[in-house]
Structures are given as structure tokens and as C-alpha cells.
Amino acid sequence: MIKPIVCGMLLVAVAAQSSGRTLCPEQPNRVDITVTATVKDIAGGYAYRYRVSNSATSAQVVNRFIVSTPGASESVLSPKGWHDLPGRAADMPTVSWYGAVILQGRSAEPFALWSPYPPLSVRYYATGQVPTPTGLTEIEAEELLAACPASFGLLENVARSGIIQGPVDPDINRDGVVDSIDLGVVRASFGKRCKQPSFDVRADLNGDCVIDVRDLSFVSKYAGRRFQVP
Ligand SMILES: [Ca+2]
Ligand SMILES: [Ca+2]
Q1: What is the pLDDT of residue 31?
Q2: Could you tell me the distance, in angstroms and rounded to a whole number, from the CA of residue 105 to the centre of ligand 2?
Q3: Are residues 155 and 183 in the same domain?
């Protein structure tokens, strides 16, 4: 039974080539980066400084680095190289950096943002860039891009994501003060996990898909603190 199946696959491959069907480049999924963050109390808020290094073993360059800033995007400044990403889902505001391509074996210059919100776990994302093959005409390159939308470094094609320190707003109901109402939101779904009934995503402040003492202690730590409501 094995031989006929192999023969069949070969015939399909030959047919694809002879018909001129596009062979898409590999999708971005082989970026190997190291991300470090430092946080300092500064001027009534926090300065977050990030460094991104693209490993020499990475198969792709990095063309965008993104930090999720839940509940805090309105107050994030945009120093050189940083941008708000308009059009993102309201529950996942982000800032992103795409000032230059980070080659394999290289580090990006550190970049920073300021936020009034204290540090907790947030998610970062990196997209890998797949260059179009050399030697194509402009029309051929456009046809390849159109035929292979998944292959080129779009935000949706995240090459690597992970957890890092970033700004998180402990004022869950955003009334300007961290108090018993915010603690109550966490307690109301304490112990719940993602996709369970009564899991309140607002209470999962560190984004680990479970509402537990980590979330509660973060809100408790900042009880009484006032944050300007945008
Ligand atoms: Ca509140
Ligand atoms: Ca959590």
C-alpha cells in the first residue's frame, strides 16, 4: 500500500509545478529572541525600558516588537520608535516598535515608554519578516504577496510571544481610585479559569488565564492609589 501513496504524492507535486502554482515561502514562525525589561519609578509613574536581541540561530529577522498594555494605552507616551497601534481590539491595546529590522545576531537599541501604571506581567509579541525572493519583477512580487498572505510578516503572523513586565492598571472599574470595588471584582471570580463561567477577564490582571492571589495581591498593593482616568 505504501508505494502507490508515495507515487501519488510525487504526481501531485509534479502537477503543481507544471501548472505554475505558487509555492509560498515559509510562514514567520522561527524567530528566536531575547527580551529584557527594566522598570524604574519616575515622575509619578514608571519608565519601562526594553531591549530586544535577535539570536544568531534565529531563522528570520524581527520586523516588529509589540508590548500589550492592558488598560493603559491612553497614557503611554510614544518616544522615538514607539507607536500606538490604532485599530487594535479595545481589550488589547498595544504599543509597538518597528523602527528598523533586527537582524539575526543583533540587538535593537533599547527603547522605553512611560506609564502611570505599575508593573505586572504583560504579553509581548514579535513578528518575523519573510523577505520576498530576489529576482522577481514588481508584478511577480505583488502576485506572490497576494497569493501567500500568510507568509509575510503581518501582525497576525506572530513569530514569538511571551510574558514580560509592563504597565497594568489596578483600577479595574476605572473610576480613578483603587478600592474595595476593584478588589470585589477580583474576588467575584476568584479561582476561575479562562472559558469558565463567571471568569471576568478584567480581574485576570497578569493575563495568566486564572484569577488567583497574584491578581488579588496586585490590586491590594495599590489600594488607595488614585490614577487619572483618561
Ligand atoms: Ca476603582
Ligand atoms: Ca491571573
Answers
A1: 84
A2: 34
A3: no
